[in-house]
Amino acid sequence: MPDTPLIRTQDAATPTSGWHSLVSDWSSDRHAFKDVSWGKAMMWIFLLSDTFIFGCFLLSYMTVRMSTTTPWPNPSEVFALEIAGTNMPLILIAIMTFVLITSSGTMAMAVNAGYRRNRRAAALLMLVTALFGAAFVGMQAFEWSKLIHEGVRPWENPWGAAQFGSTFFMITGFHGTHVTIGVIFLLIVARKVWRGDFDSGRKGFFTSRKGRYEIVEITGLYWHFVDLVWVFIFAFFYLW
Amino acid sequence: MSEIVPGADHPIPHDHADDVELYHPHSWITKYVFSQDAKVIGIQYSLTAMAIGLVALVLSWLMRLQLGFPSTFSFIDPPSYYQFITMHGMIMVVYLLTALFLGGFGNYLIPLMVGARDMVFPYANMLSYWIYLLAVLVLVASFFAPGGPTGAGWTLYPPQAILSGTPGGQGWGIILMLVSLALFIIGFTMGGLNYVVTVLQARTRGMTLMRMPLTVWGIFTATVMALLAFPALFVGAVMMLFDRLLGTSFFMPALVEMGQQLRYGGGSPILFQHLFWFFGHPEVYIVALPAFGIVSDLISTHARRNIFGYRMMVWAIVGIGALSFIVWAHHMYVSGMHPWFGFFFATTTLIIAVPTAIKVYNWLLTLWRGDIHLTVPMLFTLAFIVTFLNGGLTGLFLGNVVVDVPLSDTMFVVAHFHMVMGVAPIMVIFGGIYHWYPKVTGRMMNDAMGKIHFWVTFLGAYLIFFPMHYLGLLGVPRRYHEIGPTSFVPDSAETLNAFISVVALVVGAAQMLFLFNLAWSLRRGREAGPNPWNATTLEWQTPQTPPGHGNWGKETPPVYRWAYAYGVPGAARDFIPQNEPPATAAGDGGSG
């Protein structure tokens, strides 16, 4: 504004906490988020947009579950496995959820190792995270093939409302795609970390920019998001 | 208006942070075709949008021929009429207006106006354009697909959109349409993330958010909205694709078609309407907010006055953006929703009139006692204000449930939305192109051609759309191939329709003059110099015109003041560029 004699750069005295610091950051020049790189800001905003996609998917699922006239299949029975003679409801989903949440833990450790310039540990932990992710997608593939074997199709299933299969394949498929993309990115970044690209300043293939260890954290943001989305899918689809 | 004095306390630091490693093109292809420079990408977006816009223009001609002279043209049968309507609407709203404002103006202006060297992720930005182009090609392909493009109306409401009674419903039309929309959204997201992060994190020294030109505010807010609204359309498109291709029933209730029970059952058609309008209503403002911003800058520059109530203007933009997410169901008053919803959505809709009115008043007060130069951009800007006011007022009619219900699906609605989000934003696009063309090419556009173009377009638009309000009040329905004799529409309506059609042909032809002017001025236009309008914003202060690779010289420009320092008392000139140090601005005009 014209009537405020201001120029707030990083060196100006600024409050450090609470609403004042927020206002002071947003009314300063150059960056609205201090010490946040472009890549990290982009990932956060992308995730906000992606939240709306998953939100719309889940809301649509709830709407068709209410609009359909035929009864909804019972998830506890549909997603049960017969293991050693006992019928265990939701056992596979429980394992999948556990695996995915564990992978968030290893991801966080990878970020830590990356910032400590512990290349070997960071790359290995990312690899472990990717393995957990791949295991998740593998179990999902198993679940899909089991259901398909039992006659579940996007347009019909033996137990009730056709929308059960439609929303199941659509939502878990969309989430599984996210996990798969995450695994691929983890592998790419892990390779770069292992090779030491971020120490040597090697430039990216397309962008001609140098990478930094922060990319580990940015990949981690995406990974945790995918994990968080799964919690909602788990709650709304399997537990409801 | 106090200046920032870079004294001992707060020296403007040198440009050390954010060492952008620009992508340096090595060949003609990487410089002009697969370019990572936001300026080139902006031009690519604009030209593609205008090219597909020409298709929409021809479609509107064909529709008007049918409406004005029914039963005359045998090649316009009912199915093709619906296809023309659908494709015209979709192209204009998504592929022209959204792409041109955000992809075109956004790419070209954001980095220049905030003093950045380029967008923050040039490679993603380049991909954004090429995916957009792919989306346009898929859309165009549907014209040549068996069965032709979809004729479901631009709202694509199921169940009719994917049934055999609708053109393209059981053919390729609807599939290509939905795929094209999904591609558009993916491409837009790549660009949109760029625009948002560039505005938030890559401004130059001294450029605070509250010193940004309103153009940037408008495009920025619209982009944030688009990133949150397009997901709903994406989800709707994916689900309808599944309904069409896999036989799922997300949107499809149990149906009997031609005496045959279809496989569908249990879905919710209203769900699609909610998803569509959760995208569709913000979309109106995604188109309008950049127009608001650009108009504010054009008014201020061509009336040589600072914008009135800058802070209010910014908050009005943000407020309209936020409110537009809770009004969507006012498009669904006749869908059979619970009346309480109508009550809620009518209230929120009418509340939007408050920030919108603030903006209109502020534009008028900016003009008040201004030194108004009736240049071509200014003419278009003034035309925008009256047109937007007009469309906004009919919006108040349609926002009320009781008035909307009888007017729903009549020509009144057509007149309303063409005024408010058709003609008005296009006026701004024209104004913006006439205004920034000198910066893009280094030459002025021809003034005489520009004025002819303006008057024909402006007066013609009113001759076309004003009578439509009357037709709508008579009860003439929209989206009818031919209404034939009725008890309530007098014969004179037919004469009026013929008149509208003739004017529409003339106005369409006037756009060819605009395109000719664009091409002609490229070589023969008057040399513009770096700052032909004596404007203050940063894009006019670039070391080269057109701006070179990286936009600025060695250092990005420091910003000392807001973007509206026009007619400052005691200043040497009637404008002070944002990057002019205070000492020279207040001095004896030595900097001339």
Automatic annotation (TrEMBL), chain A:
Keywords: Cell membrane, Membrane, Transmembrane, Transmembrane helix. Pfam families: COX3. The keyword Transmembrane applies. Its main location: membrane. The keyword Lipid metabolism does not apply. InterPro entries: Cyt_c/ubiquinol_Oxase_su3 (IPR024791), Cyt_c_oxidase-like_su3 (IPR000298), Cyt_c_oxidase_su3-like_sf (IPR035973), Cyt_c_oxidase_su3_a-hlx (IPR013833). Belongs to the cytochrome c oxidase subunit 3 family. This is Bb3-type cytochrome oxidase subunit IV. The lineage of its organism: Bacteria, Pseudomonadati, Pseudomonadota, Alphaproteobacteria, Acetobacterales.
UniProtKB/TrEMBL annotation, chain B:
Keywords: Cell membrane, Copper, Electron transport, Heme, Iron, Membrane, Metal-binding, Respiratory chain, Translocase, Transmembrane, Transmembrane helix, Transport. Pfam families: COX1. Its main location: membrane. Its EC number is 7.1.1.9. InterPro entries: Cyt_c_oxase-like_su1_dom (IPR023616), Cyt_c_oxase-like_su1_sf (IPR036927), Cyt_C_Oxase_1 (IPR000883), Cyt_c_Oxase_su1_BS (IPR023615), Cyt_c_oxidase_su1_bac (IPR014241). It is found in: Cell membrane; Membrane. Pathway: Energy metabolism; oxidative phosphorylation. It is a multi-pass membrane protein. The keyword Electron transport applies. The chain crosses the membrane at residues 40-62, 82-110, 130-152, 172-193, 214-242, 284-300, 312-334, 340-364, 376-399, 411-434, 454-476, 496-516. It catalyses: 4 Fe(II)-[cytochrome c] + O2 + 8 H(+)(in) = 4 Fe(III)-[cytochrome c] + 2 H2O + 4 H(+)(out). Residues 22-561 form the Cytochrome oxidase subunit I profile domain. Cytochrome c oxidase is the component of the respiratory chain that catalyzes the reduction of oxygen to water. Subunits 1-3 form the functional core of the enzyme complex. CO I is the catalytic subunit of the enzyme. Electrons originating in cytochrome c are transferred via the copper A center of subunit 2 and heme A of subunit 1 to the bimetallic center formed by heme A3 and copper B. Belongs to the heme-copper respiratory oxidase family. This is Cytochrome c oxidase subunit 1. The lineage of its organism: Bacteria, Pseudomonadati, Pseudomonadota, Alphaproteobacteria, Acetobacterales.
